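Dear colleague,

Thank you for sharing your sequence with our group. We've completed the structure prediction you requested, and as agreed, I am returning the results in plain text so they can be pasted directly into your records. Please verify that the sequence below matches your submission; if there's any discrepancy, let me know and we will rerun it promptly.
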Amino acid sequence: MKSRIEDSQPLLNAADRIRFEIDPHIDSPWPENHEKTWRRNQIEAGMISKKELAELVEGNATEQALQKLLKQDLSIFGEIYADPKEEYICFSEFALDAGRVDFVVFSGRSRMDVTFIEVK
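Please find the predicted structure tokens below.
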């Protein structure tokens, strides 16, 4: 059986693809810092669902109700607007000139993208 698997390049490619989907750092000589992994798990545990947000929007929720939900989990903006993934900073009620914007997302590396979000 071992020789049949080793001789099947498509099967080996599929196995590698699955391994890297499970853990993209599996063969990395620099494993991810445990604090980063812990923080990611903490964020994921507190994430609001897109379904929950959609139900609120479809139910004609007020601007205040939407903002209250979104402020519970700013990572939803990072998930949508950040590139590269997981590299963003998000603020609510961000001071801008003489006023405030509801949310802002800073993302990117050498060239930073800034996304202003107003909930209406």
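Summary note from our side: The chain has one domain: 6-117.

Kind regards,
the structure core
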